[in-house]
Design goal:
Blueprint (H helix, E strand, L loop, with lengths): L1 E3 L10 E3 L7 E2 L10 E3 L1 E4 L12 E3 L2 E3 L12 E8 L2 E3 L7 E13 L7 E13 L7 E8 L2 E3 L7 E8 L2 E6 L4 E9 L2 E6 L7 E2 L2 H15 L8
Parallel strand pairs: 3-5, 4-6, 5-7, 6-8, 7-8, 8-10, 9-10, 10-11, 11-12, 11-13, 12-14, 13-15, 14-16, 15-17, 16-18
Antiparallel strand pairs: 1-2
Length: 227
């Protein structure tokens, strides 16, 4: 299920997921398995550090307060699930699929999501450092009240993506393609590279003033006081 947001100013709003979890059984296996199948399970404060769940499928699951340091989830599919307060460094979700997912209050660093597909995903609260989304595809994604430090969207495709009350520091948009991306409600917008890729996004007048020096530098325009 997804709820379609109303766009403003001609921008198409993102469709948010409406995750309704069934009754869950506690996860008791202790060790993830590559290509494993996990349905209707609750992972509560599990230490999944260094475990290998590459290619696994998580359907109708809740992960609450789990440690994901160096957890290998490459090519995993996370569907109709909620991840609350995950923590860890170096989680590998490269080329994974996240669909109808809520990620809440994450404390993560160096997450590898390059080549991943995110569809109808909400990332709410928390802080993620050095998020790698190079060549990922994001459609109907909402980032709300979170902090992203040096997120890398290089070569990614973003469609109907909203940034709401979030802080973006040192973002890399090099080679990215943006369609109906709404940045107007971002609390802070700091673009380190790829400012020329903002075509297809909408920003506020105040953000335009903040970005003016970067835009001028991109255009090769020198800004100097008159004589």
């Amino acid at each position: 299920m997804a709820r379609k947001a109303m766009g403003e100013g001609g921008v198409k709003g993102a469709r948010r997921p409406e995750v309704r979890l069934p009754p869950l059984e506690p996860y008791r296996d202790g060790q993830l398995e590559p290509d494993g199948d996990y349905d209707s399970l609750e992972f509560r404060e599990e230490d999944l550090t260094g475990q290998d769940g590459a290619g696994a499928r998580f359907m109708d699951c809740a992960l609450r307060g789990c440690a994901l340091d160096e957890t290998r989830l490459r090519h995993a599919r996370i569907l109709d699930s909620v991840l609350t307060a995950p923590r860890g460094v170096g989680t590998d979700l490269a080329e994974a699929t996240l669909r109808d997912v809520e990620l809440v209050d994450a404390r993560l660093g160096g997450v590898q999501l390059h080549g991943a597909v995110l569809e109808r995903v909400v990332i709410r609260g928390g802080k993620i450092d050095y998020l790698n989304l190079r060549k990922a595809r994001l459609r109907d994604v909402v980032l709300e009240g979170c902090v992203l430090v040096e997120a890398d969207f290089g070569g990614a495709r973003l469609e109907r993506v909203e940034f709401v009350d979030c802080v973006l520091k040192g973002v890399d948009l090099s080679g990215a393609t943006l369609t109906d991306v709404d940045l107007r409600r971002a609390a802070e917008l700091d673009i380190a590279r790829g400012v020329e890729r903002l075509s297809g996004a909408v920003i506020s007048p105040a953000q335009l003033l903040d970005l003016a020096p970067v835009l001028a530098a991109e255009l090769g325009v020198r800004v100097e006081a008159g004589p």
